[in-house]
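Title: Comparing notes on inverse folding

I've been comparing how different people in this forum approach sequence design from structure. To keep things fair, I'm posting one structure and asking everyone to reply with a full sequence. Here's the target:
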């Protein structure tokens, strides 16, 4: 394995990188809670410098040894619910946080799968390409692009961008966020730090996280971008939606067109006198300025409700005035005989001389006549054919059919030979261990070349649904259509039923408790019961004793009794 720079992942000799000028000996690379640069994950990804961290996890620059390219690796690691073991790799859940951890992990996996499914869509997302397990946690693989953050891009500008430039720059971004929202994904973290500018000047969007990581009322540390996070993200009882991303996009546009960052949303008051973009930059059209201010309304009900509506209002431009030109005789082109207006009216044939038009029109007819004559002459003079009576026609038809069959057989044989040659060439088996079985069989890439057989086994160290073994080794070349048996984890055989209250005595929500049990491989039945001693929706008890150990080979279902 080559020695690589942890900052840019290019091959180097020694510690100093001649490409980016940084060093692998930089002490800032080593942090106790993070993976050590140079660590291998899933025996494939070489870990480099950490790119960012929030309450949900850590993103690293990495190098994919299998395909020889840079990637970004997102590690699920909620610091308030788990810790890294002394081996520097394995993630262990904190005692008493099992349910919240499992619920958040479920959200992380589901979001990653949604993003992977979107990679075939035309969008400016930083694309997710794979998800797998290692070190007792989940990793999502994202593509890596050469870029700078929009924050750095704006700092390099001598003045705020004009609307003419910004409208072209932001249109794909609006379409991408609208695409996410249409699929139920709210970003909640759109800001100049999560928008990237590539070498060709286009924008890419990164930083999509679970809802818990972008709200203050969750079990993990919230990541809220000051000046861009919406007011409802600072409140405990207000829902998030498309309007949350509308606020962030409006704030980014405000910064882009004025050079000023909006005040933190939780410090704003209704009716506050925020100067409009048009007041700070007179080149901003009044309609655009008004729309941005509507997107920045403090109250959700007063704000533009969707990104599509925001985009429509911003890009609704008045029609260009029609310039009337008096009719007058235009000079004719000396060569073609057409007026100059005829050359500009959009018809290609008006630009051609008459003789060339006649030739173009007559050429197909001449070719048809030529091939017809050629066929008649050739058919009538073929050696071995009878020249008399109806037998000539019958013989010609029979030979024609015979010839067609021969050509057909030849074509089929050629196709069959090509297909057999393709199968003989074979395909290389990938490493499926650590991947979710559903993702493998749901992939058109894998399902088109392999046939999969699923066998399930209990495994205490691997999550439910993750492949733990394959009967055909990675790297082996096999014929297309080969059957591969995958051993898939059923999760731990023995599951301990956790408390129905957290460490602070607060009741665990039914959804979180249910998610924990289902992630452990148990099916769950929820029954409503009337009990005045409990608030509605509170878990009262289970059909098994809390704290008891369930043997999943004997028990498959748990009933939760909830106060009605």
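Reply #1:
Here's my take.
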């Amino acid at each position: 394995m080559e020695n690589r720079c942890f900052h840019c992942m290019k091959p180097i000799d020694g510690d100093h990188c001649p490409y980016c000028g940084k060093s692998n000996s930089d002490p800032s690379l080593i942090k106790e809670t993070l993976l050590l640069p140079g660590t291998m994950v899933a025996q494939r990804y070489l870990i480099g410098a950490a790119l960012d961290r929030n309450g949900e996890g850590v993103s690293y620059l990495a190098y994919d040894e299998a395909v020889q390219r840079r990637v970004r690796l997102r590690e699920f690691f909620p610091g308030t619910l788990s810790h890294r073991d002394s081996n520097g790799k394995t993630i262990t859940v904190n005692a008493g946080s099992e349910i919240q951890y499992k619920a958040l992990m479920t959200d992380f996996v589901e979001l990653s799968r949604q993003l992977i499914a979107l990679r075939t869509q035309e969008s400016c997302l930083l694309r997710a390409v794979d998800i797998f397990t290692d070190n007792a946690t989940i990793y999502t693989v994202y593509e890596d692009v050469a870029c700078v953050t929009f924050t750095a891009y704006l700092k390099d500008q001598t003045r705020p961008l004009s609307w003419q430039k910004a409208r072209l720059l932001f249109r794909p971004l609006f379409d991408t966020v609208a695409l996410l929202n249409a699929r139920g994904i709210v970003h909640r973290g759109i800001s100049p730090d999560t928008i990237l500018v590539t070498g060709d000047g286009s924008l890419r969007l990164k930083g999509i996280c679970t809802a818990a990581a972008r709200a203050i009322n969750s079990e993990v540390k919230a990541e809220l971008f000051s000046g861009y996070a919406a007011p409802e993200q600072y409140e405990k009882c207000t829902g998030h939606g498309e309007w949350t991303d509308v606020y962030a996009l409006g704030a980014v546009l405000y910064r882009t067109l004025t050079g000023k960052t909006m005040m933190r949303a939780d410090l704003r008051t209704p009716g506050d006198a925020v100067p409009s973009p048009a007041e700070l930059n007179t080149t901003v059209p009044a309609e655009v300025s008004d729309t941005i201010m509507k997107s920045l309304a403090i109250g959700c009900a007063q704000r533009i409700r969707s990104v599509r509506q925001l985009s429509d209002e911003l890009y609704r431009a008045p029609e260009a005035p029609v310039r009337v030109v008096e009719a007058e005789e235009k000079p004719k082109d000396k060569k073609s005989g057409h007026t100059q207006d005829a050359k500009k009216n959009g018809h290609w044939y008006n630009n051609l001389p008459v003789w060339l038009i006649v030739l173009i029109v007559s050429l197909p007819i001449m070719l048809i006549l030529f091939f017809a004559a050629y066929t008649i002459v050739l058919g009538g003079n073929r050696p071995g054919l009878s020249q008399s009576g109806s037998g000539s026609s019958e013989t010609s038809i029979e030979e024609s059919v015979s010839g067609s069959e021969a050509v057909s057989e030849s074509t089929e044989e050629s196709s069959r030979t090509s297909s057999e040659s393709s199968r003989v060439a074979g395909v290389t088996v990938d490493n499926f261990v650590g991947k979710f079985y559903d993702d493998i069989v749901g992939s058109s890439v894998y399902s088109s070349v392999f046939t999969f057989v699923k066998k399930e086994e209990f495994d205490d160290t691997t999550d439910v649904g993750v492949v733990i073994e394959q009967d055909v080794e990675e790297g082996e070349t096999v014929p297309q259509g080969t059957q591969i048996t995958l051993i898939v984890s059923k999760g731990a055989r023995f599951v301990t039923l956790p408390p129905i209250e957290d460490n602070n005595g607060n009741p665990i929500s039914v959804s979180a408790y249910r998610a924990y049990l289902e992630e452990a491989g148990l099916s769950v039945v929820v029954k409503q019961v009337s009990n005045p001693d409990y608030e509605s929706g509170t878990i009262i008890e289970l059909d098994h004793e809390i704290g008891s150990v369930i043997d999943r080979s004997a028990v498959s279902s748990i009933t939760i009794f909830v106060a009605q």
